[in-house]
Amino acid sequence: MNLLLEYQSQLIDGTIMTIKLALTSLVIALIFGLLGAWAKLSHNRLAQRLAAAYTTIVRGVPDLVLILLVFFGGQVTLNKIGAVTGLWGYVEVSQFAAGAGTIGVIFGAYFTETFRGAIMAIPRGQIEAGISCGMRKSLIFRHIIWPQMIRYALPGFTNNWLVQLKTTALVSVIGLQDLVYNAFTAGRSTGQLFTFMAAAFVIYLLLTGISDLLLRAVERHYNRGVVRA
């Protein structure tokens, strides 16, 4: 216990970095998820094919492979393009940017299917009723589609978020000083690797537990007044 107190600042800093990484990647994932769902449900064949290719490729490649590919290959590619075109100088892709961007794009594919399924679960008659009442598309989306989409998507959203939060641990491989990286470094330097990894285990369990409780409360809020069969 005294050993953990001695390294508590390192563990706290790692936890804060993990939370920042998870939230940043979540924003990116939501943007890609909403755009992907829109593309899959649109009548544009090109948009449908691009969205299908995106979700198929991203979900078919291991997360760690994509993170390594973006971090190492992305930086080399950007600098080669910059050298050839002269549009920019040397670009260094940080561990945080590579991790947050890659995890965001990865889980954007999963959120695409979550949002698409949620929108398809909305009774078509409600949307047609809005159209017959002369509502604009923006009003139909704001008053009919969006509130119900959130309610239908929340169970899948919760599952995706919890998995995404744990996936942030992979970024420690490329040197980002997150919870896993700091815990591993402290454990290796003190010879008490099990103790520090157990501490990381407890912290991750707390983060996922708190997230689950909060999202369940949100789900209860959006389900108020809903009559269950």
From TrEMBL:
> What residue intervals traverse the membrane?
20-39, 51-73, 93-111, 161-181, 193-215
Q: Which residues form the ABC transmembrane type-1 domain?
A: 15-215
What keywords are assigned to this protein?
Cell inner membrane, Cell membrane, Membrane, Transmembrane, Transmembrane helix, Transport
UniProt-listed SUPFAM superfamilies: MetI-like (SSF161098)
- List, alphabetically, the PANTHER family matched: CATIONIC AMINO ACID TRANSPORTER, MEMBRANE COMPONENT
**Keyword field contains Isomerase:** no
The entry's family comment says: Belongs to the binding-protein-dependent transport system permease family. HisMQ subfamily.
> Is Membrane included in the keywords of this UniProt record?
yes
Q: Where does the record place it? A: Cell inner membrane; Cell membrane
Q: Which Pfam families match?
A: BPD_transp_1 (PF00528)
Q: State the InterPro entries in the record.
A: AA_ABC_transptr_permease_3TM (IPR010065), ABC_transp_permease_HisMQ (IPR051613), MetI-like (IPR000515), MetI-like_sf (IPR035906)
Gene3D superfamilies linked: MetI-like
- What name is this protein filed under? ABC transporter permease
Q: Which domain of life is it from?
A: Bacteria
Q: How does it sit in the membrane?
A: Multi-pass membrane protein
